[in-house]
Amino acid sequence: MIAQLKAQLTDMVGSAKDLNALEEARVTALGKKGRITDLMKTLGTLSPEERKTTGAELNTLKDEISALIEKQEQALKKQALDARLAHEKMDVTLSVRPQAKGTIHPISQTMDELVSIFGAMGFSVAEGPDIEDDWHNFTALNFPPGHPAREMHDTFYLPDDPKQTGDAAKKLLRTHTSTMQVRHMMANKPPYKIIVMGRTYRSDYDMTHTPMFHQIEGLVIDKDIHMGHLKGCLMDFARAYFGMDQLPVRFRPSFFPFTEPSAEMDIGCSRKDGGLKIGAGDDWLEILGCGMVHPNVLKNCGVDPDEYQGFAFGMGVERIAMLKYGIPDLRTFFDSDVRWLSHYGFDPLDRPNRATGSK
Ligand code: PHE
């Protein structure tokens, strides 16, 4: 009888065509209500002598069938793998499938150009946190408490940091990269010659404002830096960036709490027939803010203003990208629209400091 059962089960396991069928066979043979298990349960009704021999035979059968199942499982798995290997072929001689062509975002492109231009002038690049506190964003930069300029920044405030007190507890998203003037001066000894690029945040939204945008900040501090250096540096920059040796520029007096004197730099343009043309004409377009770093800022950062002075500047990365590449709406920068990107984006292999766009 056991021999017959063995033949049946062996046949069942051997004929299982896939892993599901094999599992069924295993349950039929060895499951809780399986054939062998059933027989095991009847051992109690046998005489002690029979129980001994039948018990031993059943145990052997159980082991044999288990081993068979194991073997069959390996065979089925190998079969499945062989089938996949035979089926999934790769012809390495086929030409590459055309893929959606990625491009470099105009912001990245512009930042690369900025690093390339200022890098050539000897600036190094510093970076800092987007989440700042009131002290780095305002107080250290000589914004008096309650000064209207604080409100002008449309600041996004975050919940206070319970581990800090005073200005340092008031967390915010930085409204400008000038925060990094402070961080860099506090962490390093003068002289300084850095640019900082990164995200900045202000609660504002229209054709020329988005709640998040990018700025580039410049800081040059040494023992003999004066306004002439500021003008020369920024004129060289603008002419290199827009690729025009004769680009007209002018500096207009302005106000920032952290610079004295302060100025805004304009570039020459014409606005005829609704079109904007940079580099010619009798109109002016503002591109950046700048000035000589205020002695109070140097003092707040542990730098002696009697020994060191210099200049700083800041400008919007999107704004100068829009001007150079003729992009009319700032909001489109952040739509993640591949059609926009394929139109305004840049080839990854383009050189970053090329003066005009590839379009
Ligand atoms: N931080 C100023 C702004 O965001 C720009 C600026 C930077 C002006 C450095 C002067 C010097 O408007």
What do these coordinates show?
With 359 residues, the protein is of the alpha+beta class. It folds into two domains: 2-87; 106-344, Bira Bifunctional Protein, Domain 2 (BirA Bifunctional Protein, domain 2), CATH 3.30.930.10. The chain has twelve helices and ten strands. The chain has helices at 2-15, 19-30, 35-41, 48-87, 106-120, 134-137, 148-152, 179-187, 227-242, 295-300, 317-325, 338-344; strands at residues 124-126, 131-133, 171-173, 192-201, 212-222, 249-256, 259-272, 275-278, 283-293, 309-316. Helix 1 (2-15) packs parallel to helix 4 and helix 5 (106-120) packs across helix 11. The radius of gyration is 37 Å and the shape is elongated. The N and C termini lie far apart (87 Å). 29% of the residues are buried. Residues 176, 178, 217, 256, 259, 289-291, 312-314 line the site of phenylalanine. Phenylalanine binds next to strand 9 and strand 10.
CATH architecture of the largest domain: 2-Layer Sandwich
- CATH-assigned fold name of the largest domain: BirA Bifunctional Protein, domain 2
By DSSP (H or I, 4+ residues per run), the number of helices equals 12
- The first-level CATH class of the largest domain is given as Alpha Beta
Tell me the CATH superfamily of the largest domain. Answer: Bira Bifunctional Protein, Domain 2
Using the alpha-carbon principal axes, give the shape.
elongated
Topology overview:
Elements: H1 2-15, H2 19-30, H3 35-41, H4 48-87, H5 106-120, E1 124-126, E2 131-133, H6 134-137, H7 148-152, E3 171-173, H8 179-187, E4 192-201, E5 212-222, H9 227-242, E6 249-256, E7 259-272, E8 275-278, E9 283-293, H10 295-300, E10 309-316, H11 317-325, H12 338-344
Parallel strand pairs: 1-4
Antiparallel strand pairs: 2-3, 4-5, 5-10, 6-7, 7-8, 7-9, 9-10
Helix pairs in contact: 1-2, 1-4, 2-4, 5-11
The structure holds phenylalanine.
